[in-house]
């Protein structure tokens, strides 16, 4: 019986070595897959960072445009106020001119 154990030992060793080789191959494949996944993850993180930067730039442009719009609205309000002031001033001048015309007409008649 002992002799049979010794005789079967090379077969067992060969079987164990094949299993070891299969496990090592599986580990290499798993490492490759992990590296691929890590590479894809890194690419996704980099792409996300690029998109965040692009989003910030676009947000800055929107903010600048919004500020320009607010400034333009303020200018419009000021311009409308100036126009109203000029109309009032012009109305009194026009009134004086009309009165002068009437005076001239009255004196010429």
TrEMBL record:
Protein's name in the database: Uncharacterized protein
Superkingdom to which the source organism belongs: Eukaryota
Keywords, in A-Z order: Coiled coil
Coiled-coil region list: 13-40
């Amino acid at each position: 019986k002992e002799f049979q154990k010794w005789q079967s030992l090379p077969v067992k060793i060969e079987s164990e070595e094949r299993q070891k080789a299969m496990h090592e191959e599986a580990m290499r494949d798993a490492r490759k897959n992990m590296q691929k996944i890590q590479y894809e993850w890194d690419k996704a993180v980099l792409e996300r960072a690029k998109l965040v930067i692009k989003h910030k730039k676009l947000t800055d442009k929107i903010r600048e445009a919004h500020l320009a719009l607010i400034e333009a609205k303020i200018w419009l309000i000021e311009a409308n106020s100036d126009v109203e002031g000029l109309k009032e001033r012009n109305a009194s001048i026009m009134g004086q001119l009309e009165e002068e015309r009437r005076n001239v007409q009255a004196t010429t008649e």
